[in-house]
Amino acid sequence: MVTRHRVAVLYDAPEAIGSHMSQNDTHLTVRGGPGVVLQQRWLLERVESLDKSTKRITWRPREDLDRDLSVIENELSAGFSVYSNSTDIPGRFISTPMYNSFHSENFDIEQHLLLEVDPDLPWNPEYFTYDITVEPAQIQIVEYRPLKQGEEFTVGRVKDEKLEAGVFFVDASDEVDVDIGGIRCNWGMDDGKLERCQKTSLLYKQGHIAFNRSSQTAPLYLEQPIGLHPKVLIDLTEFDERPQCMYLMHLQLPLELFVDKFQVSPLLLFGEHDLELPQYSLQDKAWGSESIFELKAGTVNEITLHSRYIKPSNNSAGKFEVSFSPEIILACDTGDEKVARNPFYKKGLGYESLFTDDTSFRHLNTTTLSVPIPRPDMNDYSKIKYGTLLCLLISIVYLLSKIFGNNKKKVPVKQE
Amino acid sequence: MVGEDWGLIVLSFLVRVGFFLFGIYQDANFKVRYTDIDYFVFHDAAKYVYEGKSPYARDTYRYTPLLSWLLVPNHYFGWFHLGKIIFVILDLITGFLIMKLLNQAISKKRALMLESIWLLNPMVITISTRGNAESVLCCLIMLALYYLQKGKYTMAGLLYGLSIHFKIYPIIYCIPMAIFIYHRMRKEGPRAQLTALLNIGVSTLVPLLGCGWAMYKMYGYEFLDQSYLYHLYRTDHRHNFSIWNMLLYLDSANKGNGGSNLSKYAFVPQLLLVLVTGCFEWWNPTFDNLLSVLFVQTFAFVAYNKVCTSQYFVWYLIFLPFYLSRSHISWRRGILMVTLWAVTQGIWLSQGYYLEFEGKNVFYPGVFVASALFFLTNVWLLGGFITDLKTPVPLATAGKKNN
């Protein structure tokens, strides 16, 4: 079966293309620079399976959160996420009306993606971002990587592959429309030779709009000191309410933290929301919870979370810290469903699917917050056990001696 | 009841109104709410009931549905704070009953002081005005005792049964209560003794089983699980005053992994002490002594319980005025006892604060040692109470009126 492979590189100006690209008969080489992004997409055909469900797997390294979004990218949540609309819900997945989801800090791709053909992908979760869609008839793997100054990327056709490459620059873009131009190259299916490249231009609408963080900022931090009820503060004082728009916070909380829906009223809350149980009593049930809060512009928003009791440590003085990355999003109704897909990405399962197709997303800020959770040490177990036992024994002996002993006081002669 | 009694009731009422109004003001104007977190749970649960649903639809609602029914007017009249007024009224009725039951042989001045332990106690006042439901239970228990003293066993039983339906623990009072009745009816012969005991026994079972059955019919297994079973099987509580707390935490986190079973037997010393102290009624089967025995019994129950928070202190506080009215404990010793109780509690609270609000890892030794100190203090106090209980009351103050 033939794999369709597509490479797209985006530069910020037309001059950059000439100076950053070279080619020979069979290979194309592009060189990196500030803000350059490279997207690779593989389409793998599947033997039509009986399972009609769709699955989406996304991965984004935490370090990538600071990078500004380019116009060929959608903004993905930090960490490893799996979304599926199958009716069969695997263990530890949580359900929402649109999908079941799993979230983790680890790139567990092998466990969640079964490939019938192996395109021999060099997974690189440390630097690369992935957006993978598994449909009944095909699997689409999209990889993004920043191509930094001094870095090079060379591509040539491999066996059983239909390869094309595009080298683009941003011609014009405003908040809604994007116009990019560049060249597009194909490789011959028989000889694997690079065919003539053609000029091309693309015009589309963005679903995820890059936010200029230099002009306005939405600081996101935890109130200090951080106790067992960490308070997330989202400063939107620099922002104004906008018609047809909502300021939101999207949270994927690990099991160690939870939202009390009766206290902070999230718009949506899925997954583990038990208000009392410790992490270790719930760990087989769910990975955590996903929630969306509405925020107010022009003020500092407060969302109080709670930490669960966690397993005691084993002889380690190290603090236990749990991290999560709230996403501050401005979601707007555009009235135009074209924002749902473009040549580089389309909206899929995940929080996007909880909104109407014409919604656009601006990511104002995503900051990784870290909450230390105190826990006892198992090394103190015997001290605690025997200490408790000792207290109880002393108390019982003392009280029984009081009860059965001859300790009657002399009756005072006069009362009152 | 004389003018001074009414004066105290009116003053208590006014103070509560003040606290209640301040609470509304604080809720509206300050970040830290005055209203108790549990009140939100009752209030939300009552909303579900008002909408014809189960109160257990509200997470962490673990009480009898009757409590949520009590707060349905909140939603009918659309006033959030309404339920607190019910709690305040029941709290005042409890104070009024304490007045009625307090040994009349003591001086008026002393009686007023003892009554104030309940009526003007800031802890009691804040508990009911913040919307904590303890006053409902206190009022039921006090009413049951009121009718018991009057010899109206059916009424006493009905109210006592209802109080057990509300929270299981008043069941520990059945032994001293039975001993009291047994002795009181002694003159009338074994037949009358048996009749009286059967009378109160059956009338206790009627509301207990009746309410239990009705609630089970209405809300199913969830009622049994959430209101009763949950309290028995749950071991992974968050930090609280109990001596058992740390061990329970470590054992629950280490299930099937070499943890001890010690915490499974938490109820053994508790049950033992509650049974034995309950029998102190036998040697001095007066009504006054019954109230003192209930104080000591409850104190032992709370001290040894596997969970203990501040609101549990109210459980024995209702009996404190009676206990003090017959106690021989000197002023000096009394002050030492109260001081130690407050200081060790303060030590625990400081550790609790570091853990809860500063995220400091003070589980060991901090929280554990503080719990142990508080526990040992409680045990020492209990020892003092037991010695005191064994000391015969001089005839002059033996409360003839009440027998």
UniProtKB/TrEMBL annotation, chain A:
Pathway it works in: Glycolipid biosynthesis; glycosylphosphatidylinositol-anchor biosynthesis
SMART domains linked: PIG-X
Transmembrane segments annotated in the record for this chain: 386-405
Membrane topology: Single-pass membrane protein; Single-pass type III membrane protein
Main location: endoplasmic reticulum
Pfam families xref list: PIG-X
PANTHER family: PROTEIN PBN1
Function: Required for proper folding and/or the stability of a subset of proteins in the endoplasmic reticulum. Component of glycosylphosphatidylinositol-mannosyltransferase 1 which transfers the first of the 4 mannoses in the GPI-anchor precursors during GPI-anchor biosynthesis. Probably acts by stabilizing the mannosyltransferase GPI14.
The family this protein is said to belong to: Belongs to the PIGX family.
Name listed for the protein in its UniProt record: Protein PBN1
UniProtKB/TrEMBL annotation, chain B:
Primary role: Mannosyltransferase involved in glycosylphosphatidylinositol-anchor biosynthesis. Transfers the first alpha-1,4-mannose to GlcN-acyl-PI during GPI precursor assembly. Required for cell wall integrity.
InterPro entries, per the entry: PIG-M
One Pfam assignment: Mannosyl_trans
Taxonomic lineage: Eukaryota, Fungi, Dikarya, Ascomycota, Saccharomycotina
Membrane topology: Multi-pass membrane protein
Keyword annotations of the record: Endoplasmic reticulum, Glycosyltransferase, GPI-anchor biosynthesis, Membrane, Transferase, Transmembrane, Transmembrane helix
Coiled coil regions, renumbered to chain: none
PANTHER family membership: GPI MANNOSYLTRANSFERASE 1, PIG-M MANNOSYLTRANSFERASE
Pathway(s) of this molecule: Glycolipid biosynthesis; glycosylphosphatidylinositol-anchor biosynthesis
Cellular localisation: Endoplasmic reticulum membrane
Source organism (scientific name): Saccharomyces eubayanus
Record's keyword annotation contains GTP-binding: no
UniProt similarity note: Belongs to the PIGM family.
Transmembrane spans: 6-25, 85-102, 123-148, 160-182, 194-216, 265-283, 290-307, 336-355, 361-382
Protein name listed in UniProt: GPI mannosyltransferase 1
The EC number(s) this enzyme carries: 2.4.1.-
